[in-house]
Each structure stands twice: as C-alpha cells, then as structure tokens.
C-alpha cells in the first residue's frame, strides 16, 4: 500500500510518501504567490525521493490550511488530527504535542490509539509562531541559525514585554540601545515565544511525554526555552516539519 | 531560511543618501547645530546653519544605535568638505537611540522634535503632526511655536506602521517607493484587508492573490486598511488643521490619499523638505536654541 | 442518509418575532404615546417600572441587535462601534456597551430614526460594567440616573447563612422602594401599585415557564435547538413582566411538550448533543448549523437557560427545577411592599446568571455538570467571550472540571457583539477538529446561510 | 527606616513566616482587596497580609483564567499556585471586581480551601448600604469566631481600630511631608513603605513608621524644587521598576490614587457607639474605587483636590491592562483634567513593564511640563 500525505501550510507545503506505513519519500517547498506551484514542487521532490511515479500512489490524504487546493483525496483532516496520528506512529509515549508552524501554533493531547483528545490553537496574534523568530532575527541582523546559537549562550534572563512580532522589534532595539548582550536578547525572545506556547499546552493539561513538531522545532534556542518553561524533557521528533503530512498519509492508508 | 531571504533582492530598501546646500558656506554661520535622529528603522543626521537647513544624511539603522549614530553623522559630514564634528556647536540626539548618540550634548524625544521640525517645515499654521515612523504611530497636537500640547502613541501592536509596509513590499516584490502609486492604479477601491497585523496580513495577501487579485488591488486593500487604522489612532486626539504627516510613510501616496478620504479634508503638503528629516531638523533647531541659551549664561 | 426523526417548524416562532418587534416599536413611539421611556439593563429587575405607562430600552439585547446589523450592513456597524472607540472607550470593554454607546453618540437608532430620548436610566449593577454603563449614558444624555446595587446569593453548596440571605433581601427591597419614590419624584407621575403587582406576577410566571420549556428540551430527540431557543428566550430578557410575554411562554410550553410527545426533533439527524456557555457571537450563529451537519444539536446554554429562567435548587437531589411561582406557593401579593419582597426574593433565589458572575467557582461548575447529566450532553462548547467578561467567569475552571470528568470540551475565543474579534474560518476549523476528536462524521455538506 | 521597608517588601514571605514563628497559636489570613475590613481579623489576633503579584512572567494560571482578565489578577493567583503563600491559613476578600474575583474563586479551588467572603456593596452612595454592610460584618465576625473558636471582645475590636487608625494617620503624615518643595522621599521610596505596610503587623509597622518619620525624614531632601511634580492615578500598582524609571529623570511622584497607596489609608474609623457600625461607615466613606463611584462621580473632586494640595503639575494614569472599572472611568477622568489644564499620560500596566516603550512617553510628558527649558 502506497499513500501520499500533503500538509499545505501558510508558509510551506510538505509532502510525505508512505509504503506500508514506512516513509519512503519526503518533499518540501516554500509557498509562493502561485498557489499550486509549491504543492507541485513538493510532490515532485517527494516522489523522486521515493523513486516512484504518481501512478503508483493508491491513497491520498490532505491537511493544513490550504488543503482545499487538492480536490481529490481519500482523507481530508484538520492539522490537529493529523498531528496526533503522525506523532503516535513515531513515538507512542508522547501524549502532548506542541506544533509550531510558520504562523499557527497548536498544542494537541494524544490518546493511546493516536486520536486527538483535545487541542488549543494560538489566537489572532502571530506571537508564539515561527514567523516571530524570523522577524526578531531580522531585527538582530542575524540568521535564524545564529539566532538560536546566541540564545544558548545566554547568562541572564530578561523579559520582553510585547505581544506583537514587529513591535517586539522595538523592545529588542531598545534592549540593544541599552547594550544588553546579544545572547541574552535572543534568549529573551525565545522565552517570550516559549511562554505563549507552553501556556497553550497548559490550557489542555500536560500529560505523558511532551513532543515538539513543526519547522520551529529545529530551533535549538526555542527548544531550550520550552524545556525550562515546562520543567520536563521535551522530545523533538525526527523531521519535525513532516509529522502532519506523515499523519494524514497514514490515515489515508488506513481509510 | 533567513539566509535565503538575504540573497533575494531587498524590495523594502528605500533610497539612502546625503545632501548639502550648494549655495551656503558654513564658515559664515554664527551657530552650527545638528540633530541626529536614530530611529528603529532609519537614522538621519541634519546639520543647520543659523537655523537653516544646510546638510543631511539619511540611512538605514544598524542594530546598534551608537554605530548608526556615528555612521549617519559621518555620512552627513562627508557631504560638507572641510567640516569636522567639532565645528558643530551643539548636537541633539533624538529617536529610539537618542541616549546612545555619543557626541550629542543633549537627548530630546522625537515627539518634541517632530513637533518642532514640522513647525519649521510647514510653518506655524500646523496644529496636528502625524509621525508615521518605522514602528510607531505618533499623533501630536502642537501650538503655533510647534510646542507639544498633547500626543498619543500606538501601544503593543505595530499594525499600520512603515515596517509593515516594508514586509508587504518584500512579499509582493514591489520596490517600497513604488507601493503608493501602484496601489492607486486600480479601477475600483477593493475592501480593506481584515487585519493589519504584519504577519497575518502576509497570509491574507497570499490568499487574495490566490483568489485572482492583482498586486495593485492587494496593495490598495492593505493601504486602506493601514490608513483606516491610522485614522482610528489620530481620532483620539482632537484633530485640527493644518494636519501634516512626517516620517517615511508620508511619502506613500497610497496611504496619504486614503487617509485624506477618512479625514474628510486635505492633508497639508506645503514643504519641499524630505519628511523623514522632521525629527533631525527639530533636534537641530533645539540645538541652536540651547546653544544660544548657554552663551547667555 | 435519511432522517432519523421527523421535524417541523415551530408554530409560535412568528408570534415571538412579532412580540419582539412590537416591543421595539413601542419604544420608538413611546414619546408620542405619552409613555415614559426608560433605559437600563436586562437584569435590572425590569418589573420595577411596571407601575408606570412606560417602555424600556433594554441595553444588552439592543447591543446584540446592533451586532447583528453587521450581517446586512457592515459599514454601518463599523461606524457605530468605532464612534465609541473614538470617544476613548477601549476595545476590551463590554461589547454590548460599546455598540450601545456608539449608536447613542451617532444618534442612530438601529431600528430606524434617531436614538430615542430616554426620560431617565434605571439600572441594577451586578457586574463591573452595568452601573458605569448607564452612568455614562445619563451623562451623555444629561438625564437622571438611578442604579440599584444587586448583591446576589452565593450558590447553595456554599451554605450561605440565612441571616446573610435576609440582609441581601432587605437591601434590595429597600432599594426597590427607594427607586419607586425616586421615579415618582423625577417623572412627576404617580406609580400604580396594582400594575406593579401584576408586573411582578408576570415576571415570576414568564421565568418559571421558561425554565419548564428548557426542561422539556431534555427529551431525545430535542424539540428545540439552541438557535431557536435564542430567538425565544429574548422575549423574557426584554419583556418578562408583560402580560403578552407571560401568555406567550405558556403557549410555547404547550407546543414544545406536544413536540416531545410526537418525537418531533429540531435536528432530524440528532446523534450527539452539546450545550454552550456565554452568549454566542450574535452575528454568526451559522456555527450551530455546522454542528448540525455532523448530527450534533445544541440543546441549550447556561446563559440562555439562566438569564430568562427561574430555577429552584433541590437540596436533596442536588439539582435545579423550575421555580414554583408565588401563586403556586399560595403567596398572596396585596401591597407594593409585598410585591417588592417577592421580586427581591425571586431574583435572588431563582436567578443563576448573576451569582455566576460574583461566585464562579464550585457552584457554577456544579450547575454545568448538572446540565450535562440532565440534558444528556455528549460535549460542551465554551465561548471564551472577549465581549462579556461577566459570563466568561469560571469558564476555564469549568473546562478543567469537564476534562477531569472525561466530557469532551471545546473552547473558542470570540466576541458576542464585536465581529472584529471573531474569526469564523478558524472557529470552523476548530469545530471540525472537535468533531474529529468526538469521532463524528459529517452527514451532509454545510452551506453558510446568506 | 526606609531600607527596612524595602527589605520587607522584597522578603514579604520571610516576614510573615517569622511572625507566625513568634505567634505559634495564631493564624495568617491572605486577602485580595483593600475593601476587606482588616480590623475584624486583627481583633481576632490574626495577621491579615495582602496578596500581591511578583511581577515575573508566568503561565501557571493559564489553565484556570481567561486571557482577557487583568495581569494583576493572574499574577496574584500565580503566587498561590506557586506555593509562595503556603503559610496562610485562610484566604479572604471583600467583593473586589470580576477579575480579582476569578483569582479568588480559583484560589479557593486550588490553593486554600478555607475562605472568608465579604459582600461589600458597590452602591456606597445609598443610605441602605450601611445597614447591609454592618449586618454583613456582624456575620463575618461570627464566622471568624467560629473558625478560631473564641469570641472577639469589644475591647479587642477597640484596640484593633486604634492600631489601624494610628497606622493610617502615620502614613497620612508621610504623605503630608510630600507636599514640601524639596520632597523628603521619592515616590519609589514611598511606594516601598506603603506596600510593605500591607504585609506587616500594624503594631510593628507603626513603630517603624514613627522611627522613619522622626529619625530619617525630618530635614531630608530626596528631590528638589526643580523636579517636575507628578501624581499617579489608577488601579493596583506596586510597579517599583516603573517609578524608578520615572524618577531617574528630573521628576518626583508626590501623591497617588491607588488601592495599594492612598486609597488604603486615607480615612480613619470614626468611633461611634458600635465598633462594627463604625468600621462599616469607614469603608463606605473611604476614597472609592471606580466601580463604586456612581451615580455621583466623587473621584473627580477628590483627585483634583489632591493634585492641587500636593502641587502636581502632571498626572500619569496607570491602569492594569484589561481593567474594566478603570477603563470605564478613564474617559471622564482624562477629560476632566484636560478641562483643568493639567497634562495627563495614560499607560497600561502589565506584569512586566515595557520600559523601552514607556520611557519616551514619560520623557515627552516631562518635556511638556518644562515650559522654560527647550521652548
């Protein structure tokens, strides 16, 4: 059984190809002004990576805010359900998942059998999403990578008080003006985002192991802040940005 | 990810540069004063001779205010052969980095400086000054001397600021200077975007393009949303004519025209001076006054 | 999939609509008809002015009506809500109040014409906003203002002492007398005790019968869905002391019981039942229809049950029944003072909205759990209402309690009277996830009503 | 001495624990609103301590409190959830406002089961509020007696009232000193005193206050006549960091209208025949919190009088983000001072203050006040 899963988010399109519940191909592409462009590019990459052609795909699953772009599918599910299915397949011990996408962040409680029991989503403000980091990195004139590295070197804690990505820049600027060490500012930004993420998780109640998925899970600085906030171990799942796509591919296979 | 972005063309970048009045010689001046406006997005250094505009530089702020201040001042001086920093009698620092201008004699808020600067640029009839800066919106009501009577600033949300427009320009691959006119090249005014939150507006803009909107339409929708937000902000101070705009976004006709529609009257545009210089000019004028005061003592 | 149950439109629905429009018409014409026109809030013991020929513009439902305008005329709505913001009232304040103030400041009556000029405001404060709301209104309108202080009973499980209860009764009774004398002085009109007594009796009848209607909705299939309930409960909110309203509810109860007897369902596909809490986003009730496309019917809300209902606690069964009216208890009301005492006690002991605002803890949780059991509820939807922090009291605690108990619960942030703070796309997405977590499949495609 | 108050402000819990060690057979009651008649509890030999936030970012309250409720109420609840007040034996409040009410309800569910709740009337302007409150206080007295298992005697009450009255008078004295041209203590120092006082046994506090007035404040000059004189008005505020920032400029805060400041102690209990009645009258007559200021607006003349008597040139309106009662008074107050020609600045407080964004607003206000200087 070969199934394909699409996770069409606001910032990226992610595609996963499964053969008998094993990942055989992955593809990712940045969303552009031309909607289908990134979908096609990501699918192409995934199929090439899986070394199969489209004809061999038996089942199709779609999730993500852009899921209506794919007209014909066997399963269409919200990110919450796809997250739960994907996480549970990779690591059964994880009962609470935090998914940090480009503009959306969510926390999902997962049942024994990989169903979503409960979930919370970040509200209308983008603070607490990946885009926040990008804006901050830009204000600091460093790359996302360096941004995370700096934050790990931080020695003192400061609180950044701003709920808005762009406006937090001015807090950052005034911190810089006060000649606060760069690494502490980076840490403060990560703490700020982490605070919002963990708040969400706490609203639905944290149980079992905590897993982290979504592109921002690759940001070591953020992961560190989240660990501190929760005071527990946090597992970053392999290929975190593909977990939703994997989940919905699974659901398609079992549909 | 961010690295990739940096390779791409930076559409948000506006022209930087420096200028000197060819017909003036600073050696004839009794008082040479300067205002250095270090903002969160851009920095300006303005040099005035006996209270008249003489030279300036305008550049992007670095993340370290001190460097930005030194850098922009250096640039302004480069425009003036032979002038050295020490030749300037009094320097006022203003803007976010005002306390970090190493060579400034005094720091004064951009609120006071924009009030004073607008008074110089547009004349004593100015009553309301709207500073549309990089991350702040400031509505300032002033008297005939340009003295601040009351002011309001946006809290905790940068929606409707110049910085947001830069992100839009970047997203739609339109040079920032062209955004305004392009947004006016439409048959019919589209409904404004529902959110001016920079991050969400991005998604919304993408959505609109997907549903077949043209780039000018999207820009129009974003400009009118920004204009509306700006209007709601100024509405809380009592708006009086003449109403002028300072700061970078004043150059964006797409916003200005739509703001006029909301206000129901024309925004006063009687100046030839670059609106981004208002803060620096105000600073330089305070510098002159403070220097003369110090002589009297 | 064919329908599980037969369904039929509610016969008395149009009558409800007419009574509502009449009331707003009477308000518009009050002046030329020589009646007093009074402004105030829904929980303001609106039976008190019954002793006068009067009409009352009740603030909350009027705010809701303004929010509803957003559907047909978003521009007009924006003008109104922004008028209040431009006057300096922050956006996180009570959305009903902001809509109301905007309409007043623009002098636009949402049902046409200028904002009707009020003779005075008579208001009762039970949340942080109400007494200030009408203070601001009377300052803008330069009219007299009287505000009662309503200190509600605590929930029964708190075991409040009889002496404290008596103090609260006395406090309200003396304020009712104070209010009546004040109104006579301010208006120069004489107060008719007979009419007042009738108003109080009607108030008790209307609210007691409404509770019976809610109880009838325990039946499976549910004879009423929440969207319908919301268009019925509003009559009590704006006119419970009126004869026509009291009579209407008796008629309505009869029809609902008839529906129960004949298994006539509100939702022909009923497979699961939910309740909600706090006011819904009035301008976007479509989300109830999205639920129905999954065979999910909302059978009510603590909010609509409590605001219009008179409930009596049964300490033995630890549950709430329809309160017995003074008539049913054989209490005779002869004088103004009798009526004041009955009204005060009725409000204190049978109303559960205000006590939920002052004491949100264990008591409100107990009430919600009771509803979950008695109305056979499979899931609870909590509207985290940015527009009304009073009805949002205790909601997060309720969510925790439901999770402990294993009852599926969904929250969504929104605003009952400010569309700018309600994101329909995201709310629909959350509902879909919620349905997926409840393992429910969509039965038919949902189309948004125009 | 001031530094002792600073020390108690910073180590409030150490103080209470020490007090408990010294009074082994007595109890501590944490309370949430300045309308709580502390005299009743003090008369019973209990120590009432105000529960305030710690101004640290936190999210332990997230599961229990709706996001629209004010940062202060969340910060207060957070203290309980984090076990900082683990030494209190009961929690108490007079009806505060919805947000703090939520913090109280959640506190009784998750932190301290034993509670006292006083139905403080809102309509303090009606004569019928008095018999209600007096009766309610009799009940509270009875509840306390049942809890501690002994009667509160008339003389206990009398002493408690005397101690609290003395405390109020001493604080009032300190505020009187702030009328001077060269203010003997900064607003920051004063806030340390008034706030620390909320955590203290008033007998200790009174001693310390006397010493400070006699030994430290006489002849002291903390600020000079050139500094701009400001008054702060608004909701709960013990935001030392903000005051420090303001007073780092050439400015001094000379008075306030906050429930942790002047509203707490402005008026004494006037002893009449009955102690309980006298207490009830005091709480009905005290400077009001906005949601109790109707139908008449009694705050406006009171604030103006304070501004005049203390020579405040400008007013900073400091309000907890999302605080409805204060937002409902905001328009009236700002317009009122505009008519009076006194410049105002309106700021929203959060758990931590965005100093970067506030500094410029404060500086601009001060520039506005300094006629002669740059203009």
**How many strands of chain A?**
10
**Order of SSEs of chain D:** HHEHEHEHEHHHHEHEHHHEHEH
Largest sheet of chain A: 5 strands, mixed
Number of helices of chain D: 15
Describe this structure in words.
The complex is a heterotetramer of chains A (255), B (297), C (450) and D (375). Chain A is an alpha/beta fold and 255 residues long. Chain A has eight helices and ten strands. Chain A starts with a strand and ends with a helix. The termini of chain B are far apart. In chain B, the strands form two sheets. A six-stranded mixed β-sheet of chain B has the order 1-4-3-2-5-6. Chain B is globular. Chain B has two domains: 138 residues, Nucleotidyltransferase, domain 5 (2-Layer Sandwich); 140 residues, Nucleotidyltransferase, domain 5. The longest helix of chain B is centred in the C-terminal third of the chain and has 20 residues. Chain B is built from nine helices and ten strands. In chain B, a hairpin with a 2-residue loop joins strand 3 and strand 4. With 450 residues, chain C is α/β, with parallel strands linked by helices. A four-stranded parallel β-sheet of chain C has the order 3-2-4-5, with helices on both faces. A four-stranded parallel β-sheet of chain C has the order 8-7-11-12, with helices on both faces. In chain C, strand 11, helix 16 and strand 12 form a beta-alpha-beta unit. The longest helix of chain C is centred in the middle third of the chain and has 26 residues. In chain C, 59% of the residues are buried. Chain D is an alpha/beta fold. Chain D has a four-stranded parallel β-sheet with strand order 2-1-3-4, sandwiched between helices. In chain D, strands 6-5-7-8 form a four-stranded parallel β-sheet, with helices on both faces. In chain D, helix 8 runs antiparallel to helix 10. Chain D is globular, with a radius of gyration of 20 Å. The chains are: A alpha/beta (255), B alpha/beta (297), C alpha/beta (450), D alpha/beta (375). Chains in contact: A-B, A-C, A-D, B-C, B-D, C-D. The interface between C and D is large, with 53 and 45 residues.
